[in-house]
Write a structure and sequence with these properties.
CATH architecture: 4-Layer Sandwich
Number of domains: 1
CATH superfamily: PPM-type phosphatase domain
Distance between the termini: 32 Å
Number of helices: 5
Radius of gyration: 17 Å
Length: 167
């Protein structure tokens, strides 16, 4: 992660496109890592007027709560993680946020939490929980998600989330 973070900070100084950033990071990781070492990544670049561009490298989908219709859509991953295939072409998407829309980006440690019988919390449960709570203040949305994961089972991997809301 240290290599990835340092490389990203250096590359971002030249303001590359989301696709170019993923491509360049992939080359760096492919050159510097051992076989079977890789990293997943989600990138969101916000623009004036609430447009955004996103890229996912082997990462879980970005959930997008649309306030006007009170539903959640997925911005799905179409690419391999960074460091696996040096020539990977990364798919990039674009969308817009309307007032009150919220994006949720999560790490797999939240969905992979298992209960006593080995059943994962899962993406569907996270999407549903997000949909039911997305209009609440962001700190509350975060707390509800983290509490639900903890109630489901013990943490065995990192559990990170990012929330972005359009005002």
């Amino acid at each position: 992660m240290g290599m990835l973070k340092s490389s990203a900070r250096t590359l971002l100084r030249s303001s590359p496109s989301v696709q170019q950033l993923l491509t360049d990071l992939n080359v760096v990781l492919s050159d510097l890592t051992k076989p079977n070492m890789f990293a997943t990544m989600a990138i969101v670049r916000l623009s004036p007027g609430c447009a955004f561009e996103y890229g996912l490298a082997g990462h879980l989908p970005i959930f997008h709560f649309r306030a006007a219709s009170a539903d959640v859509i997925d911005h799905p991953n179409q690419s391999l993680p960074l460091g696996i295939e040096p020539d990977e072409r990364f798919e990039v998407g674009a969308s817009a946020l309307a007032r009150g829309d919220t994006l949720l980006i999560i790490t797999d440690g939240l969905m992979e939490v298992q209960d006593a019988s080995g059943r994962e919390f899962g993406l569907a449960a996270l999407r549903d929980l997000f949909n039911k709570n997305a209009t609440r203040p962001l700190a509350e949305v975060r707390d509800v998600i983290l509490a639900a994961a903890l109630a489901h089972g013990a943490q065995t991997d990192d559990q990170s989330l990012v929330l972005i809301r359009a005002r």
